[in-house]
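Hey, sorry to bother you again with one of my protein questions. I've been staring at a protein lately and its backbone has me curious. I owe you a coffee for this, so here goes:
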Amino acid sequence: MNDVASTKSRVAAVSVVASATMAAAKFAVGIAIGSLALISEALHSSIDLVATIITWFVVRISDRPADDAHHYGHGKIESLSALGVIAMLYVLAGGILVEAYSRLREGAAPPTFSYLAFVILCVDIVVNLWRAWALHRTAVATKSQALAADALHFASDVLGSFAVIAGLALAAAGFHWGDAAAAIGVAVMISLLGLRLGRSTIQTLLDRAPEGVSEKAREAIGAVPGVVGVERLRARMVGPTHFIDALVEVPRTYPIDRIDEIKRKAQESMSEIFGDADLTFTAIPVARDNESVRERIMVIARNSGLAVHHVTVHDLGGHKLIVSIDLEVDGNMPLIEAHDIAHKLEDHIREDFGADVEVDTHIEPLEPELPQGSDAEPARVEEIRLALRRLTHDGAIHDVHSVRVRDTDAGEIVNFHCYADPSMSVISVHDHVDEIERKLRAKFPSVKRVISHAEPPNAD
């Protein structure tokens, strides 16, 4: 059993012992002196005893984790138990009212005066104040409706005890109706407290959104970096757990791992605000106003399941766009099929940007996955390293290092690192490195691919 369940069970157990003791004492004295008000209060405490015993068992069930049959856990059993207690309270209140009316109509004799009754009621007030405080504090800490119901019962006992004291005092002063009037007061208080508890319990069973939860959750999720907006949010409580379902707008250009990070941060925010929170986060990709033309084209290609690169865009003025794309397809695919794929991609781009956009698609074979290989002999690595050194001697690209050569069935794969002036533009660096790669392949026809990594000197 976890700490929360243990705390709730311990508080409920102490409450059982106190309820049984005080109910028995009030009932015995009430019978002895003939006080309907005191008997009514004892019966009220007896129902509280029954409710507390139910609560004791309920809290042990409600904290069980979700299972195959109860996907949202077992917390709703607390609300059901609270409804049962409310029903018993209203039955008791009705019985008290009927008996009190009968005594008033028949002019029944007042109860016998006894100091013991006042002593028991004063002790009962002190005990119930402590129990109501302890139960309320635990109910707030554990978000337990069952313990909250118990706290209300004992709070009503305090008010009922004051009413009974007033009734007995009136009867002792010669007002024969005082005891019956106090009993009616107890019944009215039971009814009002039952109404208050019933309203919150029924709202929970009907999945009414907890007060303020939707607003707080929407604000917290909206504050997570990367969230564009919250389209819809639903919240409900099952026991102490807040279940929140959110449809969240995110930029359609974000990769999956970035969206997963947004989800994680949103869950952390919910747990920080509500404690026990279960967030269902559904990401909705949306277009943003600040998307570039290139980003929009990449999204269109990705949605079509196509691999594209070297997307270039030219604006000729007057909203006239020229778009050029390298489209990769299976190298063994017939040209007619590849052309159809390119044509459909161009149509999708025109649908997004307008019919006036000019789209040129360069079809090229998709780079196949390279077969497994092995490291080349050291002599071969040294030969290629020296060739790279000569090609970069006194050039913008210099100090070739970390040269690796691997043999594969498709040919040799060469990887190397090199240095470039930190102030050089990326375009300039790329052009220089590309020239080196071409010259290396021309010198060594067996080289299938060259992969270079240019970096500024002293880079980590």
Notes: The chain is about 55% helix and 20% strand. The first strand starts at residue 229 and ends at 238. The CA atoms of residues 183 and 422 lie 91 Å apart.
